[in-house]
Write a structure and sequence with these properties.
Elements: H1 2-12, E1 19-25, E2 28-37, H2 38-48, E3 51-55, E4 62-69, H3 71-78, E5 82-88, E6 93-100, H4 123-130
Amino acid sequence: MPMILVALLAGSGNQAFGEVLVEGQPDAVHIDARDVPLREVLDALRAKFNFQYRSNDALDTRMTGTFNGPLPRVTARILDGYDFAANIAAQNIDVLILRQHGPNAIAPAVAIAKKSPAPVMTAAQANRYERGLAR
């Protein structure tokens, strides 16, 4: 029994450093975050409201701050620094978090297609072009 108590106390040690409080209604949300990962803030919103999110990102950016306002506005503020898309309906919000942007973000690799040069005109085509007959 004492080993279980020690394990519980040791496991709860990390939670003493950070906490998140979510209160209010969807039209008047209050979030108080103290040194917690973004994922914990989003999970708290999910537990309190009809709020869903998806992401391939770890969402481990640490957050500290107080956020007040309607749920869509608060969501946009806490996701500042991320590219995201949100489907906002009267009773729910569904957010797709794509990636973090900013000076410390890793830019995705983008392939840029090179434009082919225009084909060379034959003498007959150039002649028609100069006479205004080419299309």
